Amino acid sequence: MKRFFDSELEQFRSHLIKMGEISIQQVQDAIKALVEADGDQAKRVIAGDDELDELEVRIDEEAMRYMSLRSPIASDLRLVIVGMKASHDLERVGDEAVGIAKRVKRLAKEAPLKSYIDLPRMASIALEMLRDALDCFLDDDAEKAAIVIRRDKEVDALNKQLYRELTSYMIEDQHTISRGIELMFISRALERIADHATNIAEEMIYLVKGKDVRGTSE
Amino acid sequence: MVTTEIPMDTRSTSPESPNPESVQSPGTKAVDAADKTLIDIDHVDFFYGENQALFDINMKIEEKKVTALIGPSGCGKSTLLRCLNRMNDLIDGTQIKQGAITVRGIDINSPEVDPIELRKRVGMVFQKSNPFPKSIYENITFGLRLQGVNDKSRLDEVVEKSLRGAALWDEVKDRLDTSGLGLSGGQQQRLCIARAIAVEPEVILMDEPCSALDPVSTSKVEELIHELKTQFTIIIVTHNMQQAARVSDRTAFFYMGKLIEYDDTQTIFMKPSHDQTEAYVSGRFG
């Protein structure tokens, strides 16, 4: 039976999906700006963050309102709680994209330290994780979410590898230090984005199965 | 008795009345009550004999909105509801000593207003469903027949329209000649709502309409309330706070015969202005 307030939940879901789409786009654009040394693109990413911030506030308002007026239970309640948490993670993904863009703005003024191979690879894994985590939300597919959680290690490993590589650059040539540090932070930002994707995947498993899997993965 | 028809036009007759009790919270749409006031309860003191049951109640009820009256037992919410169609006239010794209640600017307690006429305009649905021991068809047509309507095709039309309006048509269309008492509790309550809307009132008063119903019937009635507000002004007394939150646009909280707070439902349930309201809606009362 359809309830007259179901449209409010639909709207809530669609706002969360929109946040997902924008945050993915922001990360993509930030990495594109890095690879193409495009300071203007980086500026656009920084400006694009406002929309995510506004959506997060809106989702929180909708959740508060829904909980106060509709007394949700079971899957409705899980959706509202998960929606609030996931929107926070997505907002943080957006912040990481802005962090990357700010560093790109500075890096774009200098010659590239090395050709960018590992960073785009990390980014594409982190973005896939984000997409898959959001697909679980669209399809109620907890299996996909479990795969996302396992992939977090790939990104962690790439981050460590890059850390070692950049350290060796900096030891050899002190002129690379400022660029090396910027790149380390970008690597770290991508690793954080994968962490947020993992959080979202855990939240989606909770949404679909009602099971809290945080801290249980090997 | 001379009767005064309460005009049926949908415009309010007092466009510049202010809306002092509306406290807007951020994010809520400003309600321009000036244009929309249908019922004006103006500083009403009500007595059962020597006992004062309502103290200086002052509130404007907006047209085509659902207004919920909430508060603990004995707070005066049902008394106020019954004032709105003069049901209290039936109890000896009751009296409004101060103030007035107007519907579209007409004082409903003035000697020219016939209470029977008033109750046609301001219908009521009770806590316990009370279909007449007659067929479903006759239950719906009872009010119209009293008004002298006998045209079969007109009556048929009203029966279908009212039952559809009360979301009951599909369930009973094949047994309109069977007794209304043979329906389930939830169906009986919707039959009573159909009977109330058959005479095309402007206002429907509902006194705990779901308290005797199971959750499925309750959500059907709530769904119905949501649909009816496009045509009718609805005032509902309920003890079920979640219900008030779900179905109403405006909520009034009463305590010990006083109107403590009256605001948008969202404000009452998310950030009420008074501590007593907060304590009541969060279940921390007393």
Structure overview:
The complex is a heterodimer of chains A (218) and B (286). Chain A has 218 residues and is an all-alpha fold. Chain A contains six helices and no strands. The longest helix of chain A is centred in the middle third of the chain and has 34 residues. Chain B is built from eleven helices and ten strands. Chain B has 286 residues and is of the alpha/beta class. Chains A and B meet through helix 2 of A and helix 8, helix 9 and helix 10 of B.
User: Which sequence of strands runs across the widest sheet of chain B?
Assistant: 6-7-8-3-9-10
| Count of helical stretches of chain B | 11
Give the overall shape of chain A, derived from the CA principal axes. elongated
Largest sheet of chain A: none
Overall form of chain B: globular
Q: Write down the overall mean pLDDT of chain B.
A: 87
Number of strands of chain B: 10
Order of helices and strands of chain A: HHHHHH
Helicity level of chain B, as a percent range?
25-40%
Note the beta-strand portion of chain A: under 5%
What are the key terms here?
heterodimer, A: 218 residues, mainly alpha, B: alpha/beta, 11 helices, 10 strands, globular
Brief write-up:
The complex is a heterodimer of chains A (218) and B (286). Chain A is mainly α.
Structural topology:
The complex is a heterodimer of chains A (218) and B (286).
Chain A: H1 6-35, H2 39-70, H3 74-107, H4 118-139, H5 142-172, H6 177-209
Chain B: H1 33-36, E1 37-48, E2 51-62, E3 66-70, H2 77-83, E4 94-103, E5 106-107, H3 115-121, E6 122-125, H4 136-146, H5 152-165, H6 169-172, H7 185-198, E7 203-207, H8 215-228, E8 233-237, H9 241-247, E9 250-255, E10 258-264, H10 265-270, H11 275-281
Parallel strand pairs in B: 3-8, 3-9, 6-7, 7-8
Antiparallel strand pairs in B: 1-2, 1-4, 4-5, 9-10
Helix pairs in contact in B: 4-5, 4-7, 5-7, 7-8
